[in-house]
Amino acid sequence: MDARILLGTGAALAVLGYGIGTHLHHSAPQIIEMGVIAGLGTGIVMAIVPIMIIEVVTPEEQALANGVQTLGQGVAQIVVSQLAFVVMAQHGAVLKGTQFYLDAGFTNGLWLVVGCVAVGAGLVALIPRSKRLDEVEVGQAA
Known about the structure:
single chain, mainly alpha, elongated
């Protein structure tokens, strides 16, 4: 199967999960539902990206490329998470030193995440077709 299809599917599931969360985040079962769907999508994305790198990078550079990809993915997740909390704090209150987020804060923070993931999902269409995994030359680590 084309790895781009799996990447797009994972991104679409993440958009769906977080999108559900923008409206349904008022109870534990709703948060769990959002987490299962978004988590499945995010897991697919995180699993398929190293495979896509193996498909396009020479065996000598596969470890380096996957390391850089992991670093970039981690930084992006941290930046988006922090931005989401900044957005959430705009609709919140501090009581006795503890930050509480209002419903609008959760909604807006999740919309920010949905937007970022949707941009990533759209960028999947720009990825050129590569060799299939069974056609690539891999190094000793594989």
